[in-house]
Specification:
Distance between the termini: 91 Å
Number of strands: 6
CATH topology: Yope Regulator, Chain: A
Order of helices and strands: HEEEEHEEHHH
CATH architecture: 2-Layer Sandwich
Strand order of the largest sheet: 1-2-3-4-6-5
């Protein structure tokens, strides 16, 4: 007598995506700052963090980028704290976002300062130093893009 062969059908479970590289760093900073539950959404192959239904942080590949007022973004770039976020390389820049440098990412206090500034800015709270509100971001964006447009029109 032949034994009946058993066939096992396995349902393939899709591979689970690993968490973004700097998710622990951002989550820990949010917890230390007492900012409570912050909604997240998977976007652009990364993870976006939201306040007041607006994104303020993006974790994508090796980058940890925060949306900041134009003045803070420029100052951060000048200090070497990061660079304008360039997801995927090429010509596309997210000009309102500062991708933090490895040096900053190793310093909890500096990470917290940038996270708090971004969270307050996008949440419309400004900063303790009398920082800008979300509407000022739009004005800053117009200044950045407007200057480029004017130069192209000449």
């Amino acid at each position: 007598m032949k034994k009946a062969q058993k066939t096992h059908s396995r349902t393939a479970t899709p591979p689970r995506r690993p968490p973004p590289l700097h998710q622990g760093t951002l989550d820990e900073a949010l917890a230390r700052l007492g900012l409570g539950e912050v909604p997240t959404k998977r976007m652009f192959g990364g993870l976006c963090y939201y306040v007041a239904n607006r994104p303020f942080a993006i974790l994508l590949g090796d980058d940890f980028a925060l949306k900041l007022p134009v003045e803070e973004l420029r100052a951060g770039c000048a200090r070497g704290d990061g660079r304008v976020f360039n997801p995927g390389g090429g010509d596309f820049l997210m000009r309102e976002y500062l991708a933090l440098s490895d040096q900053v990412l190793m310093d909890e206090e500096r990470v917290e300062a940038y996270v708090l500034a971004s969270h307050r800015f996008i949440g419309g709270q400004g900063t303790e130093e009398g920082g800008l509100a979300y509407d000022d971001l739009l004005k800053g964006r117009d200044e950045l893009y407007g200057a480029k447009r004017m130069k192209n029109e000449e």
